[in-house]
Specification:
The structure holds two protein chains of two kinds.
Chain A: E1 7-8, E2 11-12, H1 13-30, E3 44-50, E4 54-59, H2 60-84, H3 92-112, H4 116-135, E5 146-150, E6 158-162, E7 165-168, E8 184-188, H5 197-219, H6 230-234, H7 242-284, H8 289-321
Antiparallel strand pairs in A: 1-2, 3-4, 5-8, 6-7
Helix pairs in contact in A: 2-3, 2-4, 3-4, 4-8, 5-7, 5-8, 7-8
Chain B: H1 3-14, H2 18-38, H3 43-73
Helix pairs in contact in B: 1-3, 2-3
The chains are: A mainly alpha, B mainly alpha.
C-alpha cells in the first residue's frame, strides 16, 4: 500500500475507470449501438479526378493506410533520434523497439544463417507494418465515425445529436416497404487496412515474388530446376521413376500460387472476422462483453502479423538454401 | 427455399470445416508440449516451429470462415 498510485489530475486512475464504466452503461441506453452494413469490399469515401487515371475512388482503407504510414514514420524517426544521440543502451520506447528487432533478428539468424542480412528487412518490415495495421482496428472511432449516406438496401433512421452530428437509431421492426427515402447507413472514414483484399493480396504477391527473386540470386538459374526438373527427365532411361519427379516439380508451381492465396486469405480472414465479431458483439451486448473480444483481437492481430512475417522469412530462407538434402 | 435462408444454412455448413483445424492444432500442440517436456533447452526452437505449424493449420479454418462470410455478404 506504499506504492504511489497512478493518478491523473490528482485523482487515482481507478475512479476514471469507474466513471467510464458508468458512462458507458448509460450511453448504451441512450444511444443504442446499431449493426453497421458489413461488406467485403471497402467503401469509397470520396471520388478524386486524377489527370491520367480519371475518376479515382479514395476508399476508407486508404485513409487507414496513410494513418499506419504516419505512425510507422514516427516510430522510425524516434528510433533514429535515439540511435543518433550516441548512448549505447537506448531506453524507453526505442529500447522496446530494439528488443523487438533483436528477437526477430535472432530468429532470422537461427533459420537463415548467412542470408539473414538480406532476409531480415522483409521480415521486420512486414511484421511491424502489419502489426500497426492490425491494431488500428482497436482505436475508438475507427469503423464507427463516418459519413451518413442514403442506404441502398436496408437502412436505419437518423437522429440529430448536436449541430451537424447525427447518429443512427436502431431500425423499427415494421414490415412496410415505405419510407425508403429516409433510411440511412454509415460509411466509416477509416476502416482497417487488413480487411481490404487489395492490401493482403498485394503484400502476398510482393512476398512470394521476392522469394523467387532471392532464390534466383542465391542459387543462379539452377533455382528453377526446382520447378522444371529436366534432370530427372533426361535420366529417364536410367531411372524411369524420373517422370514422377518431373511432375512433382510442376506441382511446386501450384504450391507457390497456393502460398499467395493462403497468405492473403489468412490475414484477411482473421482481421475481417475480427471486425465483424466486434460489430456484432458491440451491438448485442454493448456494456462489458466487448472488452474480452478486444483482448482477443489484440492477440489475433499480433499473431497474424508475426505469422505473415515469419512465413515470409522461412520461405525465403528455404528458397535460398535450395535442395540440400538430395 | 428462399435465397436468404439458403445463404444462412450454407454459411453454417461451411463452418463445419473448422473441426479439422481444431483437431490439427490439438495434435500439433500435443507433440510440441511433449517435445518441450523431453528437452526443455530446445523450447525456443520448438515453440517457434509450433507457432508456424499452428498458423498453417489455422489458415484452413480461416478459409472456411472466408467462404462463409462470402456466402453471407457477397453471394
Amino acid at each position: 500500500m506504499d506504492r504511489p498510485r497512478p493518478r491523473i489530475f490528482g485523482i487515482p486512475n481507478r475512479y476514471f475507470v469507474l466513471l467510464f464504466l458508468i458512462l458507458g452503461f448509460f450511453a448504451a441506453r441512450i444511444f443504442p449501438p446499431v449493426l453497421p452494413h458489413i461488406q467485403v469490399a471497402p467503401e469509397v469515401v470520396t471520388i478524386i479526378n486524377l489527370p491520367i487515371v480519371g475518376m479515382f475512388g479514395w476508399t476508407n482503407t486508404m485513409t487507414a493506410m496513410v494513418v499506419a504510414d504516419v505512425i510507422m514514420l514516427f516510430i522510425a524517426f524516434a528510433v533514429r533520434r535515439a540511435v543518433r544521440s550516441g548512448s549505447l543502451v537506448p531506453t524507453g520506447f526505442s529500447g522496446a523497439i530494439e528488443a523487438v528487432i533483436e528477437v526477430l533478428y535472432n530468429m532470422t539468424e537461427s533459420t537463415a544463417g548467412k542470408w539473414a542480412k538480406k532476409i531480415f528487412p522483409w521480415f521486420g518490415a512486414i511484421t511491424v507494418f502489419v502489426l500497426i495495421v492490425n491494431w488500428t482496428e482497436l482505436i475508438p472511432g475507427v469503423d464507427t465515425v463516418g459519413r451518413i449516406e442514403i442506404a441502398r438496401t436496408h437502412g436505419n433512421p437518423v437522429e440529430e445529436v448536436l449541430g451537424n452530428v447525427y447518429t443512427l437509431l436502431p431500425a423499427e421492426d415494421n414490415g412496410e416497404g415505405g419510407h425508403e427515402e429516409d433510411m440511412f447507413t454509415l460509411i466509416p472514414y477509416v476502416r482497417t487496412l487488413s480487411t481490404d483484399l487489395n492490401f493482403t493480396v498485394a503484400l502476398a504477391l510482393i512476398s512470394v515474388t521476392m522469394t523467387q527473386i532471392y532464390g534466383f540470386q542465391a542459387l543462379g538459374p539452377g533455382y528453377f530446376s526446382k520447378y522444371m526438373n529436366v534432370k530427372a527427365l533426361l535420366n529417364f532411361f536410367k531411372n524411369p521413376m524420373g517422370i514422377i519427379d518431373f511432375g512433382v516439380g510442376l506441382l511446386e508451381i501450384v504450391s507457390e500460387i497456393s502460398k499467395i492465396l493462403s497468405f492473403s486469405f489468412r490475414l484477411f480472414g482473421n482481421i475481417f472476422a475480427g471486425t465483424v465479431l466486434l460489430f456484432v458483439i458491440g451491438t448485442l451486448v454493448p456494456v462489458f462483453a466487448p472488452t474480452i473480444f478486444y483482448l482477443l483481437e489484440v492477440f489475433v492481430g499480433l499473431i497474424q502479423a508475426f505469422v505473415f512475417g515469419i512465413l515470409t522469412m522461412v520461405f525465403m530462407s528455404q528458397a535460398m538454401a535450395g535442395h540440400g538434402d538430395h | 427455399m428462399e435465397a436468404g435462408a439458403a445463404k444462412l444454412i450454407g454459411a453454417g455448413i461451411a463452418m463445419l470445416g473448422t473441426i479439422g483445424a481444431g483437431l490439427g492444432i490439438g495434435i500439433l500442440v500435443s507433440g510440441a508440449v511433449q517435445g518441450i517436456a523431453r528437452n526443455p533447452d530446445a523450447s525456443g526452437d520448438v515453440q517457434t516451429n509450433m507457432i508456424l505449424g499452428i498458423a498453417f493449420a489455422e489458415a484452413v479454418a480461416i478459409y472456411c470462415l472466408v467462404v462463409a462470410l462470402l456466402i453471407i455478404f457477397v453471394g
